[in-house]
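TA notes. Do not distribute before section.
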Amino acid sequence: MPELASLRKRTQAALCLACGKCSTMCPLSPSGWFSAARLAAIREPETEIAGQTRSLDACLTCGACEQRCPEGVRFVEFVRGVRALAPPVGRRACPHGEMLQAAARLMAGPTAPTRDLGWIGDELEIAETGEVALFVGCLPFFDLLFTDELGIATVDIARAAIRLLNGLGIRPVVLAEERCCGHDLLWNGEPEAFQALAAANAAAFEARGVKKVLTTCAECCSTWRRDYREAAPGYRPEVEHLAEFLAARLAAGELAARDGAAPSTTFQDPCRLGRHLGVTEAPRSVLAALAGGAAPLEMERSGRDADCCGTSGFIHCDANSRRLQSERLAAAAATGAETLVTACPKCLIHFQCAQCEDRRRQRAGNGIAVEDLTVLAARMLVPASTARPTGDA
């Protein structure tokens, strides 16, 4: 298969020595059945995939293995490519009845419906055209799926982002014709649908004069910043996670923390933000500003070495996912922090889901709170020119 030969060459998978160094970082290695080296040895998906289906589906594509590989194998890119080449027969269905994937596929069609922006409300201000846009992503869809089950209002993340921007005098462009960024479809082996989503989003934002795209999701940020450069090369806006944007505004003296005690925090580095994009300091500088300069407490593994939350792209969820979530929650609680903060709504959902499962099964867990960085920042930050009252935003 020439496509696989090209993929192996491009990702340097052929250089894998099976030395095992990647296993020291891989969060799935303790399972005993997962091996990055065995996946890297695949040369013919149509005949070799039968024995590797479980591993191909289970790989978190977190990139931890790449932190230790002496040969520089781009393993996550290789796995993504093999998923696109492998026959779908025998692949496991995604969690939640594949609802999120089905919604993304519908949005990839030529007659995708526009979004209802009623969740924004009357108190927040957005624009139809302008240089700065907020890419909302799938937050409204997560809201429908997880609010009743987990008590998470993910759309509050988008509202918090708009509130912060409004406080800085910015009316961000928010588009009813926005579509899913396509992250999950791309990483689940559906490049054609992803390409359609990327082209549609790029055309919509370019037509509104957008030069900077802000996201509150690590996966959306990585997709826009890295994958859209290839999928939509004619449109190159600046792309930032809101944590980066807020860190710059804090450094410029445009934002300040409210008076009043902020919770002690520890930060979960989302894989796409920390390892894939190398953004580790910006969210920490925001958290430090909220705490009067005190740095967040660090878990044993953090930054580029941080452990994954256990599920990537809603591709799978199993006992290993639960193990990883429980271990990460325990590591966060061990720091002594009151709140585990993350900058990815999927990390938030997965941790909250693990805690809900513990409560349902009456298992001993930990009581650490879990919160999104954007929501916490909106509650604790005000424009520097504003008096610093106590109380909620």
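Switch to the second chain here.
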Amino acid sequence: MKNLLNKLQIEEEIANQILNKYNDDIAKVNEDLQTANKNLELKNTQLAEVQKNIKELQKLEPEKVKEELENTKTKMKELEQAHKLEIDNIKIDNAINTSLMKNGAINNKAVIPFINKGVVKFDENGNIVGLDDQLKELIKGEETSFLFKQKEQVNIKGLDIQTKENATPGNSIGKPINNNYISNNKFQLGKIPSFEMFEKQFNNQ
């Protein structure tokens, strides 16, 4: 640069001023360039860190999403099972109450505590199972039979008359307690004795 100024026949003092200015500018440019390089290096470092984080997120995010999805599926399944159990319990309660009414329970609420609901369920055809046997035991049980309406019987002067729906096997409707009653009276086979004949026999006993 100084040789160029000498060729141009510029005075040495002015040439030195120009040269000093040039050197200052060059120094500043170099400084700015170094600063730019440092900034670029920092940016590259930050970019590399971001890229690294992105790669880590790409690895972890799907697993996290998968885990959350599995947790959601589990919760949904638990809710569905709880809802189904609630509906089944309502259906079982209705089936129990209906069956108690049909079997002559005097008070359903008084009988229900004696029923083991744990074994009462619906089969694959939607039929209730595990209830009938329990009700039979309760109806026959010495300590629970009073909870159900018993067979109605009307006694007329020794005659045990049972209602048709309550007649037990081997016990005909209107069968006298005294079996000698019919054997001691000559009734024609296939003919029903009149009420007057029954009344007369009762009055004579």
